[in-house]
Amino acid sequence: MAVLRKLKSEEKGQSVTEFAIILPVFVLLITGVLVLGSIIYAKTVVVLAASQAARVGGAIYDDSSLTLYEKDEKIRNTALTVVSNGLTGEDRTVTITQVGNEIKVKVSYTYYIPLPLIRSLFSNHSVDINFTSSYLIL
Description:
By secondary structure, this protein is an alpha+beta fold. The protein has helices at 2-9, 12-60, 68-86, 116-119; strands spanning 92-99, 102-112, 126-136. Strands 1-2-3 form a three-stranded antiparallel beta sheet. A hairpin with a 2-residue loop joins β1 (92-99) and β2 (102-112). α2 (12-60) runs antiparallel to α3. It is rod-shaped and about 100 Å long. The N and C termini lie far apart (92 Å). InterPro entries: TadE-like_dom (IPR012495).
């Protein structure tokens, strides 16, 4: 009977057991927050790229010394430069349209989830990030 009372009163292994139960949940939560932060960063870069490209497009689209191809290339290069400076990968597209006196630039980027455990929560293992910005042609 004394042995049972002694085992019941010792709690040395309790904290290790609780730590072993909580640690995986805590690590998953922290990595999820980090991945979410990097997705938000990617969205911010895509928004900046579309906004800057539309701004450039509004400034140069009425320039008669440039061909339509040159104008589109300047706009596309502006967006791709901003995206390339902030994000890695090659899955990015820039779509330029003119409607009346307004230029619209759509930037699309595919963000691939880097961690397999977090990646399994998404159906196609990636997040498509799109943003369209418009600017009046000056």
